[in-house]
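User: Run a structure prediction on this.
Assistant: Running it now.
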Amino acid sequence: MTNLHSTAGSLGKTVTQIIHFTNGNKRTFSGIVTESIKQGEFTKMQLTDGRLLMVNTANVDCIEIFSEAVDQQLRD
């Protein structure tokens, strides 16, 4: 079986994503556990606070991903 883990995992254990929707809206989600990202008709991801985020990928133009490890290093 091929490993289909998200490439977001290469940015660290948790990331922040800005999701740009086709209708012009955008939403920012922090604390996304990269190991939990599962892509399909709905992309599912677990947040560090226990929430499960489900995004209908048909309504998304692009997603910006930022490493939270880098953000933490800048704050220290």
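The chain has one domain: 7-70.
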